[in-house]
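Memo to structure team: turn this sequence into structure tokens by end of day. - J.P.
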Amino acid sequence: MAPVDRKTVGYVRVSTEDQAREGVSLAAQEARIRALALATDRDLSEIVVDEGESAKSLSRPGLQQILGAVRAGTVKAIVVLKLDRLTRSVRDLGELLETFAKYDTALISVSESLDTASAAGRLMVNVLGSVAQWEREAISERTAFALTHKRQNGQAYSRTPFGYDRKGNALVPNVAQQRAVALVRRMAKDGASLRQIASTLTRRGIAPPRGRQWYASGVRSILNAKEVGLCNARQTNSV
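Reply from structure team:
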């Protein structure tokens, strides 16, 4: 049986928000991967592209194409610009490394100068992946804490919610809208449907946040909105 001709492939990915960010464009990634292949005398067979795909899941067409080739035993090495182009999850990274190891496929990261063909390279990939996930989780926790603090203190933290006016960095109750919010919550508690509530708001001439009439989605947003600080204590239930 003739030996299988194993190849080296590159992998590039951009998500929608990545596409305008300098340094991670598809062209930039491809250029860096081709430069490494040339410098290390690697025969790069192809570069597989996932455009507009998030790293939150491994279910991406290009990546699945590569994994299929890996399992078929035809891939010797995979080259990426950075590990986060491949995945942002330590769990997914571990799963990929196990698959690559099983089929004797090396993972090479240009920016991190890593090559899992060696034990030291595999160790460093796992360490960097763990640190990256810790950093993302820490940022998420800090952001959530800041938003909670602003919400509890009646400060603006995103789009001005219905029921409030924005004055500088503060949210001030809008009396008329607070009455509408009270009506929405009371009708929902009494069993009215979202459409019935929307129809009532429109019929009473209560202006919606956008447009000229209320829809079920707008009513749902009010019911799902978190209360802002102690401002709801100022609501009046008379409509």
